[in-house]
């Protein structure tokens, strides 16, 4: 990739997950999306300003010229033109935060962070926090509206797990977006990564390149982020470096490291919709494997999808391969096959043979065997015989 292409790839744009959430809300929750507010009430604005004045020290340029110089440079590099107010909070934990007001920048600093950063690192910190403002301003406030919708949804005690997981992932991707803004403001990834490490450790001096080597070592262990509001620092450092270098596989890498394989135990709203679609196609495939099945089996399918019709599109098992779903979701598909097998005692053997063949194709033979022993109380001999028959049939 030439330098011009790399610079284009570094353009600060919302990540695909931001767009996916908005598309989902617009298509599946149009009333919620249309009523979602992208602004703040006068009461909210007044309360925010009062809180900041009561609980922080407001910085002025005469006393903190370097801080304001960094702020102006970062705003210029990110294309932000708005009045800005800076505050130092009394919390001792090193951090910084944007308090969003449309058309105004309000940044608060916590702990000794302003004293711990170099000039370049201060630019990166400013760029990161300003990028939150930039994102909320983008697309006529659509991303801020999305954030507000989930904030309101999660304020209720009966908020659904899928809402919580969507909000969690949205927050993780938002931090990755802001990390990119920090690198743009500083002109390099090293200061942005140094800020992440200093915030995590409280150290005054760190080596970003050494931490990247550590991040690469951790990445080799695989696994997805367990972060609630921010991805783990090592993932953020790697993600930022890959983005800065214009890595062509970054999209797939992020999906694997932030979201991970589809898991029935932690579905976001889009995952919930996807699993429903996969289930429908999977059942269509199973019916085709047993010659469309008996009336009892079809009734079982219609208990899940009342509108299920003959000739439904069959699922390509590559869509639920080992890399694309986790063990809990594999167990779910195995349970679906067991339900079909138990629906008609006259067809149990035929369905079980199809189930064993399907499990082999989706890399779930061992989990099928374990389920047969545990859930259906099959003997080892009977289980091994079924698997052998499936291998022979295949």
TrEMBL record:
Keyword Transmembrane: yes
Enzyme Commission code: 3.4.24.-
Note on how the cofactor is bound: Binds 1 zinc ion per subunit.
InterPro entries linked: HtpX_protease, Peptidase_M48
Cofactor(s) needed: Zn(2+)
Source superkingdom: Bacteria
UniProt keyword list: Cell membrane, Hydrolase, Membrane, Metal-binding, Metalloprotease, Protease, Transmembrane, Transmembrane helix, Zinc
All copies of domain Peptidase M48, residue ranges: 73-241
Record family assignment: Belongs to the peptidase M48 family.
PANTHER family with a match to the protein in the record: PROTEASE HTPX, PROTEASE HTPX HOMOLOG
Protein name: M48 family metalloprotease
Native source species: Qipengyuania polymorpha
Organism lineage string: Bacteria, Pseudomonadati, Pseudomonadota, Alphaproteobacteria, Sphingomonadales
